[in-house]
User: Fold this.
Amino acid sequence: MSGSAAIIWHQVGKGHIVSKHLTARVATLTMFIAATAMLGGCATSGGSPRDPIEGFNRAMFTFNEGVDKALIKPVAQGYEAAVPMPLRIGASNFFANIADVFISVNNLLQGKPREAASDLGRVVVNSTIGILGLFDIASDLGMEKHDEDFGQTFGRWGVGDGPYVVVPLLGPHTSRDVVGEFLDLKADPVVKVDDIPTRNVALVTRLVSIRAAQLPADKLIEEAALDKYSYIRDAYLQRRRFKIYDGNPPRQDDSFLEVESKTASLEQSESAPVAARQEIDGAGTGAVTAVSVEIAPVVAGPGELTLVHVPSVR
Assistant:
């Protein structure tokens, strides 16, 4: 559960790995933390204006990293070593196919019916010709794979980010995305499977498959970031904004950018937190450039994965 891979730890509970009661508790926890973060944002000074509860967030970041290094990452490494690549790809495709159903719903809610229809088309093609989604035939046919969730939908509706918060065992979020993840959890069809052994196998397979996909990014993050927490936070927030606006975010308010720039300069001069700083492009969009290595966090939705690009100097 490192910053470079915030894993869906709610999938591994006591006894039955995941129960519906545990899922409800996790959802309640995420909502509570979102409310706490929003209240905390009203009484903070200094630091990044987007991260008013940085002390709490850093503590949770360290905790999540410890869990990942001690348990999740070693299992993922064993999975990668023992399972042939075709089988790993098939597992990833299977859960991605399930995610396309809810990606379609979110595209529709965002007023993008063409993309929603394409997503449903992907599900039909991959569930039939692709044998229950094990093969991504839709991509081979030129049907684009989208990446949407309820947090992005709220963002498109005009709901603000809210304070940045690191959720225990779930990783980096904005307060808005915590609420979105609550809905993702409620809609997750894998968690809703009634047969406990089948549900457990599916959840563990999804968890390990997702973490294994993040392994190549670990070394890069370790080498690139002097302050991994700030590095992951800035990359996550920028990537989420980029995704909400489908790669074309509007220009941010100049006063906000000035505050962020001064904050970043102060942090860099005092502790040099990021080895490769973000560069805001000429349009002021803050789009991530150069390195395109995908890192986490993982969203606890229906097999869906939220990724952030690693920012670096051009």
